[in-house]
Design a protein that fits this description.
It is a single chain. The chain is mainly alpha-helical. About 60% of the residues lie in helices and about 5% in strands. The protein contains 11 helices and 4 strands; from the N terminus they run αβαβαααββαααααα. It has a two-stranded parallel ribbon with strand order 1-2. A two-stranded antiparallel sheet has the order 3-4.
Length: about 220
């Protein structure tokens, strides 16, 4: 059984398919477990740029809203942060090779932002401060800087014939996209197989389905 975040289990599951197909690249979203599997199998990894762009868009909005509360929208730090977030999203649209270096320089401009401190509570429990907007920007730029080669793999290796997304996988999965978590998921392998088969059939477009009548039956 595969659980989200279990990179070693995913590697074991994927190994026979990768070896049989002679795979060279694993195209994924930005779940850390996929990186563990790719490294273990000796595969290059392409991060889906569509997923990365959506993630950065959401994170940018969250960081900017927090910064407004911390600094105020007329503060110099706020104005710089807003401009940097805009530039960061622009770099993800352009995907230029030198973009990684620009993100690295941007990251160094936020090294002043300190990580949240741990405090000892009244009853001895350890509480962690909320990360500041500046520190969240520091970590966001570090993450993108470190992963820039994985984001641009399809451009650096045109012979791989990748489009930089995992859209083909998403289309193949269709409406039955499954994310198994410890608190949500199928109770058995048979149930999982039946559920996927049913949703694939319902959304295949090959037959007309009257869901109300079928459910009543």
């Amino acid at each position: 059984m595969l659980f989200e975040g279990d990179g070693q289990a995913f590697e074991e599951w994927l190994r026979p398919y990768a070896e049989e197909l002679g795979a060279r690249v694993l195209v994924t979203d930005d779940n850390e477990s996929y990186g563990v599997a790719a490294d273990g199998l000796g595969l290059a990894q392409q991060l889906c740029i569509a997923h990365v762009r959506k993630f950065v868009k959401r994170r940018s909005k969250s960081i900017l809203e927090q910064a407004e509360g911390e600094w105020g929208h007329q503060d110099h730090n706020y104005e710089k942060l807003r401009a940097d977030l805009h530039r960061l999203r622009g770099l993800l649209e352009e995907l230029a090779e030198e973009g990684g270096k620009q993100i690295g320089r941007m990251h160094r401009e936020y090294l002043w932002a300190q990580p949240p401190r741990r405090k000892l509570g009244k009853e001895g429990e350890v509480n962690k401060e909320k990360a500041s907007a500046g520190y969240r920007m520091r970590m966001l730029t570090l993450e993108l800087w470190q992963k820039w080669k994985k984001i641009r793999l399809h451009l650096r290796g045109p012979e791989l014939k990748l489009d930089g997304t995992n859209n083909a996988s998403e289309r193949a999965i269709g409406k039955s996209k499954v994310r198994y978590k410890s608190m949500r998921g199928y109770k058995s392998d048979e149930g999982m197989s039946n559920g996927i088969a049913l949703t694939q059939w319902l959304h295949s477009g090959e037959d007309e389905h009257d869901l109300g009548r079928e459910m009543a039956a």
